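for ur thesis appendix - PIGG transferase. copy paste whatever u need, i formatted it the way the template wanted (i think)
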Amino acid sequence: RMRLRSGAFAAGCLLAETLGVALFLRGFFPLPIRARREPRGDLPAEPAPPGAGMVSNWTEMPPPLFKKVVLVLIDALRYDFVFGSKGKQFMPYTTQVVEKGTSYSFIAEAKPPTVTMPRIKALMTGSIPGFIDVVVNLNSPALLDDNLIWQAKTAGKRIIFYGDDTWVKLFPKHFMEYDGTTSFFVSDFTEVDDNVTRHLDSVLKRDDWDLLILHYLGLDHIGHMTGPNSPLVGRKLREMDNILRKIHVSLLLKEEPSVPNLLVVCGDHGMSETGSHGGSSEGEVHTPLLFISSAFEKRTGPPTQPELVQQTDLASTLAVGLGLSISRNSVGSLILPIVGSKTMREQLRFVHLNGFQLSRLLQENTPVYEKDPGYEHFKIAERSHSNWIKLYLEGNNSEILLNLGKKVLKQYLEALKTLSSSLSKQVAQYDMYSMTVGIVIVMEVLLLLLLSVPKALSSRAEFEVSLSPPLFSLLFYLMCLMLCAVHIIVCTSAESLCYFCSVSWLTAVGVMMLLSALMCGILSSVAKILEISRLPQKIPVVSSSSWSEIDVLILTGTIGHVLSLGASSFIEEEHQTWYFLINTLCLVLCQELCRNNFLLKECDPQHSTTVKTNSDSTRKGFEYNNIDIPEEGNAKFGKAASSAELIKRSDKWISLASPWIILIFCRLLRSLNQTGVQWAHRPDFGHWLTSSEHKSELSFLAAVSLLMIFFLVQRRCSLVSKIAMALGLLGVYSYRAAIGNVLFPWQHESKDISK
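the 3d part is after this line
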């Protein structure tokens, strides 16, 4: 047997746990789809027509469809803010253009995580960023992947940007002119947008730009602070509507008949019913996408439901509109109505370039790309396209050519949709084998820790590891062989790439040995516990490491809470788990206190014997030290004993009442704010207080709370600290009064106070 100190044992478990978590995370965060980093070659030519002597050498990119493009990105613009009742009420001009103007409207679906920086990457590269991009959202490094901004700058396009400085960090030295605003002062609803709008009048009069990007943050800040149903949302939407009208009118006035301008309106993500974002609810992933240009046909007839497209489709569509190459890593497909005014040959050229780029990306990231349905559909469409080109070059202008062109377009669109879907699935494809190995390591370490807790918390603080050669050495080698065999089978039969299969054999065997050693340690601990339980106990011994009911409850609750985080529904409603655990813990504490204060003294002879022994030993101690206690001292000693007994009784009743007081306050806290997702819309005490009708009650409660804070804390403070704290608390109340949350006693509700 080998003995380990608790510190050494904990350090070993921590190292193994770190390895398990690292393996799991490596499998959980899949690598993004990437094209090879090599110089961009010439564009592919049109599919060669069948037959001898017929050649189509169109290898150039078609000319730009639009002269100037303005991209207006409204942060957290939810789809129903434009297409729903709020749009009709607060965005009348935009609604009129959508329903009756020369525009195309879509609902763009964003992939989680729905936070700003990954969404900007998706809009400009056409790729799907992963959850790991959330980590770098606060410190956005420069974007090195092929993207629309880089393509435009390389082609000589002049780009101007105003808005969220995340763009400036992602695309440094790309903008001819820029003014970035920080996105983390979420209480700023006004200045953050005024800093963008103040440039509009001057920049719209100029002709020295080709691409103008505006990123407005105010709506997102309002959502975070007050939610999507706040009156402030309507005001902000009306402000955005006026800005869009100004831009649209200016583009129409400066437009040339030959090459029209384009206004694009979109959101990076939406917002949930509580005003937050980052998840995958419908309100968070669905955003409006509007294309407004005189190049489109005027809409007629009743309004129709906007078509659903992917957010990544914007990068491909804007690239074609600006006459640029599609980004190599883009998984988006062209939105065909935007190029619907061009000739059939140009439309086929656009979709062929998009299909060629997607099929090439699939080839570089999938070993068996030939079997992919999207690749097969693309090759079929290419053959049909070559037949169409043959008819076109022969000068055939009949109805057959038009019908065949429509058929080829349909085949291309089906291929683009399937290719895009295949590539998108690869981004969300988890490395299950690496995740499983990581989970097994973590669970084995957790089980070993649970079995060793009584020993580790004992007075000796040692953990005994049994290394019995007859049993566990043989088991160890057998488990190693079995795990190595499983590893070989998985790695030779897996179709997709697996990280754990790509590591060296020495590393893989080391991990298998660790798994086997942990399992042997668990079996050894279980065998020892069973062996001790079978031994007859002649002398009852109270173990210092025995577990009480509260210990079991805390351990069970902790494990249950951790397991509940494996489901998104439990994460969204995590507060319900805490409510249950706190209530249960309070009731068990109440039972424990009742037993200790009432039942234990009457029923437990060991307790009374212990008390008696303690008193006898105290008396003997006085006699042993020859200490004489005089009568006065004896009286004082009796008074002290009686006061101590009184304090003990009051403490007993206070301790008994504490769990019930905590339960009452917990119930009040549950009524204060409805949180989560399922019941966030239900009325609560917080909504009652913050409503305009009850501003006086909220003001009174806030004032009393701040005064209580002052009186509870000031007793231990110096005079300077008291003055500073009083001024600070007064500042808190004054700030809330300035933004309209509470009232001063002398202030009438109808009058606004000066900020």
